[in-house]
Specification:
Elements: E1 5-10, E2 16-18, H1 38-48, E3 56-60, E4 64-68, E5 72-78, E6 83-85, E7 88-90, E8 96-98, E9 104-106, E10 114-119, E11 150-152, E12 175-181, H2 190-198, E13 201-203, E14 211-215, E15 230-231, E16 236-238, E17 246-248, E18 255-256, E19 260-264, H3 269-272, E20 280-285
Parallel strand pairs: 12-20
Antiparallel strand pairs: 1-4, 1-11, 2-3, 3-10, 4-9, 5-8, 5-10, 6-7, 6-9, 12-19, 13-14, 13-20, 14-17, 15-18, 16-17, 16-19
């Protein structure tokens, strides 16, 4: 049994292994997956001396508790939360040395939704199609963590960052999503298009890694027929029969049969990963490049 491993004492509400995902397999029906807040995952990796693409833990709301079998350097970022090592406060957003056998607790988010935990050496679970990411839709990659899970660690290749703390964007008080209209905006009435681009929606508690669901005004269809299934992309804003927009995130399906009214610009999806239920959402149309 290797001593380069993490023992999961408390898995939390939903903690998964994530890296930069497995792009390029949509033609096989495989979503991209990967960290919802990819810039933060890359940042915490840099803090502990890992490559930006190394696998990390993505926590949801109430964190997790870990016990390393060897001394490691960790960094926690994303949703701000308390961090302790054997009950003593440790910094969030900075590299922290955790002795072998010590109890590392990542607490409940003070704001935002998803935290990211990088460990020196990275998480060395078996890759699938070139990625170690958990995909909740297809079931590829390691399953979500449960209490008692043991995660192997890779070998350390670099020293950790020599900084006290790094700035990170705060979770959004209002989620402003820039969208390129189409390809199926013609399936909606002019009134619906005005509602979509001028109304304020709110993040639904039914949101997950597959999609950010919204609550608010229903969008009226101008075309009542069925749309044949077509390819879906990251950030696609699909409108299901209830008329309320759904923004597709990392674990989205690769095809879908409901019309896509617009597509969110990729840089704006980082904030969507941290938007708590009830957060106001506005869709702002921008010109195609």
């Amino acid at each position: 049994m290797t001593d380069r491993a993490l023992f999961v004492v408390r898995a939390g509400a939903l903690t998964t292994v994530q890296d930069m995902g497995r792009p390029g397999y949509a033609h096989l029906g495989v979503p991209r997956s990967g960290a919802l807040d990819a810039p933060t995952a890359a940042l915490v990796n840099r803090l502990v001396g890992n490559p930006a693409k190394a696998a990390v833990l993505e926590t949801t709301l109430n964190g997790c508790t870990l016990r390393p079998r060897c001394a490691v350097t960790v960094a926690v970022g994303g949703a701000p939360c308390p961090v302790t090592v054997d009950g003593r406060p440790a910094p969030w957003g900075a590299a922290v040395r955790v002795p072998a056998g010590a109890l590392l607790d990542i607490g409940t988010a003070l704001s935002g939704v998803r935290g990211y935990v990088a460990v020196s050496g990275g998480l060395a679970v078996e890759p699938v199609l070139g990625s170690r990411s958990t995909d909740l839709l297809s079931g590829l990659g390691p399953p979500p963590l449960t209490d008692g899970t043991v995660l192997p660690l890779g070998h350390v290749i670099g020293g950790h960052a020599r900084v006290d703390v790094v700035p990170q964007p705060a979770p959004p008080a209002e989620l402003v999503l820039r969208v390129t209209m189409g390809p199926r905006d013609g399936w909606f009435t002019d009134a619906a298009l005005r509602v979509f681009t001028t109304s304020t929606y709110r993040v639904s508690s039914a949101s997950n890694r597959i999609g950010l669901r919204t609550e608010g005004s229903s969008l009226e269809r101008a075309v009542s027929g069925e749309l044949p299934s077509e390819g879906m992309v990251l950030g696609a804003v699909q409108v299901p029969p209830d008329g309320r927009p759904v923004v597709f995130l990392a674990d989205h399906p690769t095809t879908g049969g409901y019309p896509v009214i617009a597509v969110v610009r990729t840089p704006d999806l980082r904030a969507a990963a941290q938007a708590t239920p009830g957060t106001p959402v506005r869709f702002v149309p921008v010109r195609r490049h």
